[in-house]
Backbone:
């Protein structure tokens, strides 16, 4: 089905740099996801608590601006955003190609998405519980840290996995414009040089990784959710 | 003591303004179990939520132990709320925490050390008779158990006041009984003032020493439970206490007398005795009495005999009964 030269190339890739590519892919997935949560978690919380009827209302214009910016960033297609943001990468890490260069665009593409995911997770928390905390004299920070986030924990973990897998997909896509990892192998060898065997191999690896992420995520959610008997 | 002065709360939705509370005045003495009863929409939940300012009143004052909550800064208010606890119809437990950690929650908010908080929480679990449920999560508890944990949590901060917002409305009758008994016991043991918001008369009858009837956002009447329930003076009170139905204007051939039982000993066969001892036959037109302890409360409407002298004798007899007041009426509620 595949020629000897294709198998030869695949062997070559597996022996030289497959592990490096997997490592890059994991780096390009976890680092941006975590950074996107560092920005997106507080924003998502503010989107709920800062509302007019929230526990700590913020000025209406500020909330409108926040929502507007998030919506704008979310509506720009990832590849376009990637290209627009690459100069920032040059500023931050001195290059626009490779694994490191792709992290900043990934974070910028992902944090508005993460903010929305966090927002919906926090909204799931029963208002009555927040009210109970208020009736006990809890302040805004105490409610956020001791009620909203812990009570939303299962939804947050579940949405973390959603974000992780989305960013993983973006990362693979970035192979097309100089990103590293398995995505680059799939695009460079498989697509550009028309080596279907290598492309299938890389794609299968990507699929396996997603399955592992989702599987681990499901276990974590189940373990963390005390509403399941 | 809780003093509610000229309290009003208006909700506005767009153009519409709805007055949930209109100029409510109430004084709730220390150590009392105080009932606020009303049909849904009467404003009772708004009232209780105004007591700890979960709902900010549109006008008026809420004074707890001489301190005006409406005049406090947010920080002072948070501090004051620690001595005014609240339990809810939906329990509102933290679903991701164990029962013990739920009880620790208000102590954590106050910065109590963890070991100390856990010790206190275990004592409270004993108090609500669930010592073996420390490590259970709310999902594993029944409704009654959840409310017990909520009560323990509410008591953790040593409050002076416990507000109960329809706290038994989601529970079955038997569980309701046990929760009411617990509240009564806690009131006696700890001296905590209990404010009970409910639409169920049985709840008020069983534990409240005083009651206020709320309707259309206003207090219609207020007083000792036995007095208010046996002889409701307001329309709203009568609608609540008497079986549902409309006022019927009877143009009777005979005169009517309304007996109000104010704690006559239960099992006194008044009508039968009138018949046997005096030979006077009375017609029972309506009756709604209930026993609280060994005494009877409620009222009964009797038709007097057509014969004027017999009617006068019957009236005289009835007026001399202990724990019963008799008055002539021209209409009755069926």
Residues:
């Amino acid at each position: 089905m595949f020629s000897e030269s294709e198998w030869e190339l695949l062997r070559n890739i597996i022996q030289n740099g497959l592990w490096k590519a997997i490592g890059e892919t994991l780096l390009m997935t976890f680092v941006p996801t975590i950074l996107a949560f560092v920005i997106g978690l507080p924003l998502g919380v503010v989107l709920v608590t800062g509302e007019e009827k929230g526990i700590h209302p913020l000025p209406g214009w500020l909330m409108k601006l926040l929502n507007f910016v998030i919506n704008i960033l979310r509506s720009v297609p990832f590849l376009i955003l990637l290209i627009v943001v690459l100069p920032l990468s040059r500023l931050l890490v001195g290059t626009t190609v490779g694994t490191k260069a792709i992290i900043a665009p990934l974070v910028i593409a992902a944090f508005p998405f993460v903010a929305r995911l966090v927002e919906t997770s926090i909204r799931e928390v029963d208002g009555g519980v927040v009210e109970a905390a208020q009736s006990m004299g809890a302040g805004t920070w105490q409610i956020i840290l001791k009620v909203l986030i812990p009570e939303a924990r299962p939804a947050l973990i579940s949405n973390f996995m959603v974000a992780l897998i989305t960013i993983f997909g973006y990362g693979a896509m970035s192979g097309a414009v100089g990103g590293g990892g398995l995505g680059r192998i799939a695009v460079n060898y498989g697509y550009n040089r028309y080596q279907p065997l290598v492309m299938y191999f890389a794609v299968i690896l990507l699929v396996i990784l997603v399955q592992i992420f989702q599987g681990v995520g499901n276990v974590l959610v189940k373990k963390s959710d005390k509403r399941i008997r | 003591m809780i003093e509610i002065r000229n309290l009003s709360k208006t909700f506005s939705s767009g153009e519409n303004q709805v007055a949930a509370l209109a100029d409510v005045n109430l004084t709730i003495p220390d150590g009392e179990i105080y009932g606020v009863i009303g049909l849904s929409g009467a404003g009772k939940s708004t009232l209780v939520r105004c007591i700890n300012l979960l709902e900010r009143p549109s006008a008026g004052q809420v004074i707890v132990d001489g301190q005006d909550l409406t005049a406090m800064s947010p920080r002072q208010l948070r501090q004051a709320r620690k001595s005014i606890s609240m339990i809810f119809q939906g329990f509102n437990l933290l679903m991701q925490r164990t029962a013990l950690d739920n009880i620790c929650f208000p102590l954590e908010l106050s910065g109590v050390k963890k070991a100390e908080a856990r010790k206190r929480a275990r004592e409270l679990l004993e108090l609500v008779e669930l010592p073996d449920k420390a490590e259970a999560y709310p999902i594993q508890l029944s409704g009654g158990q959840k409310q017990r944990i909520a009560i323990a949590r509410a008591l953790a901060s040593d409050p002076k006041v416990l507000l109960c917002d329809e706290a038994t409305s989601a529970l079955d009758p038997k569980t309701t009984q046990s929760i009411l008994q617990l509240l009564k016991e806690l009131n006696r043991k700890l001296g905590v003032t209990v404010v009970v918001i409910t639409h169920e008369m049985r709840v008020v009858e069983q534990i409240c020493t005083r009651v206020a009837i709320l309707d259309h956002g206003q207090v219609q009447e207020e007083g000792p439970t036995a007095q208010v329930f046996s002889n409701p003076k307001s329309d709203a009170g009568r609608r609540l206490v008497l079986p549902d139905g409309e006022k019927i204007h009877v143009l009777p051939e005979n005169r009517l007398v309304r007996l109000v039982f104010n704690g006559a000993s239960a099992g006194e066969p008044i009508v039968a005795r009138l018949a046997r001892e005096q030979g006077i036959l009375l017609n029972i037109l309506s009756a709604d009495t209930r026993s609280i302890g060994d005494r009877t409360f409620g009222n009964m409407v009797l038709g007097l005999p057509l014969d004027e002298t017999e009617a006068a004798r019957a009236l005289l007899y009835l007026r001399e009964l202990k724990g019963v007041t008799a008055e002539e009426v021209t209409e009755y509620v069926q």
